[in-house]
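Continuing the series of single-chain predictions for the mutant panel. This is the parent chain; the variants come on the following pages.
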Amino acid sequence: MSSAMPLRDPALRDPAWRGRVTGTLIAIAVLWPMLELAEFKPWSLIDAQSLKATWRFLLGFFPPEHSLEFLQMAAQATWETVAMATAGLTLALLGAIPLTLLATEQLSISRIGSGRMRWPAALLRTSVRWLLVLLRSVPELVWALLLVRVVGLGPTAGVLAIALTYCGMLGKVYAEILESTEGEATRSLLQNGSGRIAALLYGSLPEAASELVSYTVYRWECAIRGSVVMGFVGAGGLGQRMDESMKMLAGGEVASMLMIFVLLVAGADVVSKFLRRRLG
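Parent structure:
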């Protein structure tokens, strides 16, 4: 009996166990209907028929295609994918930067003195923020599907799709990054008669440059991935070639293009780390 008494000592009990158990039960009660609605059945992956089909599919990847003709085609498609992502992100930046100037409250001249924006400025900022919501709420793949019908097959649809979606994403995040800075230098410049662009360049950017560059490079990496996906709907690049190879059951070609895709993303990560070190 004496050996069992310390286990009943309240000082030895975890004071948060009830909260953890309650949180776990609530999470199960909330997530289980969602999993049922999504028809999530992971046990189907270990079914004998699924395992056999998966094994046949993976065997088709070996050996990866490495003929000179294929590598030349893959290099051209890879360059097209990178060009699509870079051009789309450049267009997105051209739209996102002025929208960021309008959406960022720290750069509001009408707030000087009273601390509150005048209603025309507030209305303009609200309208710009809703425009950013509209642009980023439509995925680039949906934009690509629509634009392929307008401009036809090829990279143009992919470039425009990336530009529209990423303009909304960049504008929103840039505004949030700038507003998260201390803002003393920006306010001082505006109070002394500086314009918005000068306040941005000499007040906000020095504090937020590293984070802005890091997020921009990350979005470029996402644009490369998005360019590959949009190729499946006819927007050109590596994705369109991969789609053709999958339809022809050319597993070796698919394996080689997947490795190229991994190298692309790894290269974007290296560029991001390099730029962060230079700005850090």
